[in-house]
Write a structure and sequence with these properties.
The chain is elongated and about 90 Å long. The strands form four sheets. It has a nine-stranded mixed sheet with strand order 2-6-7-10-1-11-12-13-14. It has a three-stranded antiparallel sheet with strand order 5-4-15, with no helix packed on it. The relative contact order is 0.09. The longest helix has 20 residues. Strand 12, helix 3 and strand 13 form a beta-alpha-beta unit. Helix 9 packs antiparallel against helix 10. The mean pLDDT is 92. It starts with a strand and ends with a helix. The protein has three domains: 287 residues, no CATH class; 115 residues, no CATH class; 58 residues, Arc Repressor Mutant, subunit A. By secondary structure, the chain is of the alpha+beta class.
């Protein structure tokens, strides 16, 4: 390609406050249209906004987690534009004085580790929602649902540091993981809790000046972001190759066709006629408040991942999987606290059988019938030689189904591992006698057949034979000892 891609992202993070940013209306999703509104979020004359304290707390925490500086004073502004889902005719946002500034996130990929700057994070209210469809007995119609109007948002604006669709997706995933870890956003992209506008431009390789950008609005999945950016890169390259000029505009992504299409001319800041909101005083945040919010921060994924490798000896892959979600990391750590000698075993069961059961059942970790206490109780039985790893699979399934402790299940089901040398030796002798042909193959140099004998012994013992003892006896007898 003769062009360098330049991408900046504006991410809208919907906060998990129970009420809206400037009134007491609920933010619950999926309620009947226009059932969660009041004079404030409807923009009725004489209604005055009151700032949601928790929204400010969440803004500070997000800023700290993304390495931003927190402004001692920030100001709310009116962003003026007219659209059917904006009842006041303006949106309360922040302009010249945002709450968080000059942060960064590191992303990793085939490019190595790359630092992406964050220009600002500011608070604002969401608009309502237009619902397009046919009303019964009428022609094509559109409806306005203002339940979402006034929902608190953080807008996270990156520097134009991204150079590919893959880098953009990596940045989005990193930011998504952080805000969900913090608990400030539920991260539900289908419900619009985390969505982004992508600004894409091209410039000839070596040119310092940015090209003309197009903004792709409200993309709400990582896959769609990648598709939209890649399509836009190709579209703009075709325009430039043909000697044309890219038009600065706002475009929409059509998931059905995988294409972007023009929506309207791109507005500039002056088009919105920003001015300080006269109904809201400047927001002042002192150092004590910032430190109080810093104390509320959980250990973030990057730090956790490094600690798991350095202190627990886990591989980079295991650490990555276990820290992907805060709930999984906390479950794992609870298990390690109960069984500190077996971090790898705890990790394997959490990433393996536990995750499989959760996926199959559609349950969350909070709903798991197998608690860290139950899991580590079972691992202690393996460590003590009471049950084998194979029997443990059966025990785990039974714990999931009943919620009973492993020791009780082992006793009731008669699953205690057989470690009696004489009993196992008798089974081994029977298996070898029945498999004379395989014995000759093994002694003739075909060592792969050894697994056949192990399987037959375990089958004959109903999985109860001590695997280590089985292997030892088989090797001894097959070698003619």
């Amino acid at each position: 390609m003769n062009y360098e891609v330049v991408i900046g992202l504006e991410v809208h993070v919907q906060l998990t406050t129970r009420t809206k940013i400037f009134c007491g209306c609920s933010t619950a999703f999926g309620q009947p249209p226009n059932s969660q509104t009041c004079p404030v979020c409807l923009g009725l004359p004489g209604a005055l906004p009151v700032l949601n304290y928790q929204a400010v707390e969440y803004a500070i925490r997000t800023g700290l987690a993304t390495n931003c500086s927190i402004a001692p004073q920030s100001v709310f502004a009116r962003k003026n534009y007219f659209y059917p889902d904006l009842p006041k005719g303006y949106q309360i946002s922040q302009f010249e004085l945002p709450t968080c500034r000059h942060g960064w996130l590191d992303i990793e990929g085939e490019w190595g580790v790359k630092r992406i700057g964050i220009t600002r994070i500011h608070m604002e209210e969401d608009a309502g929602k237009l619902v397009h469809g046919e009303a019964p007995g009428s022609s094509q119609s559109s409806f306005v649902d203002l339940n979402r109007a006034g929902t608190p948002l953080l807008e996270v604006v990156s520097e134009p540091d991204l150079r590919s669709a893959d880098e953009a997706v990596a940045y989005l995933k990193k930011l998504h993981q952080i805000v969900v870890y913090l608990g400030v956003c539920d991260g539900n992209m289908e419900e619009g809790s985390f969505r982004c506008d992508a600004n894409v431009s091209l410039r000839p390789v070596g040119q310092q000046e940015f090209g003309t950008r197009a903004e792709i609005k409200n993309v709400n999945s990582f896959r769609f972001v990648k598709q939209a950016i890649e399509y836009e890169i190709e579209r703009q390259a075709d325009v430039l190759d043909a000697g044309g000029k890219v038009v600065q505009e706002t475009r929409l992504f059509d998931a059905q066709t995988g294409m972007t299409r023009s929506m309207r001319g791109k507005e500039e800041a002056h088009d919105y006629r920003y001015f300080p909101d006269p109904d809201l005083v400047p927001l002042e945040i002192d150092a004590a408040w910032i430190e109080a919010e810093r104390a509320q921060l959980p250990e973030l994924p990057d730090a956790r991942r490094q600690r798991y490798q350095a202190e627990l000896g886990l591989s980079a892959y295991d650490a990555e999987v276990l820290t992907a979600e805060r709930a999984m990391a906390e479950y794992f750590e609870a298990g390690v606290a109960l069984l500190p000698t077996q971090p790898k075993a705890v990790a394997n069961w959490v990433m393996g059988d536990l995750t499989r059961k959760l996926n199959d059942s559609g349950q969350t970790l909070a709903e798991s019938p197998v608690t860290p206490e139950l899991l580590t109780g079972m691992l202690r039985l393996i460590e003590a030689g009471t049950i084998s790893g194979k029997i443990a699979k059966t025990v785990f399934d039974e714990m999931w189904a009943t919620g009973h402790e492993a020791a009780r299940i082992v006793e009731e089901k008669g699953l205690v591992q057989v470690s009696d040398t004489g009993a196992i030796e008798a089974i081994v002798d029977e298996v070898l006698a029945a498999g004379a042909a395989q014995v000759e193959q093994y002694r003739g140099g075909n060592e792969k057949v050894f697994g056949f004998f192990v399987g037959q012994v375990m089958k004959a013992s109903k999985g109860k034979a001590n695997p280590a003892l089985v292997n030892e006896l088989l090797k001894r007898k097959l070698s003619g000892e």
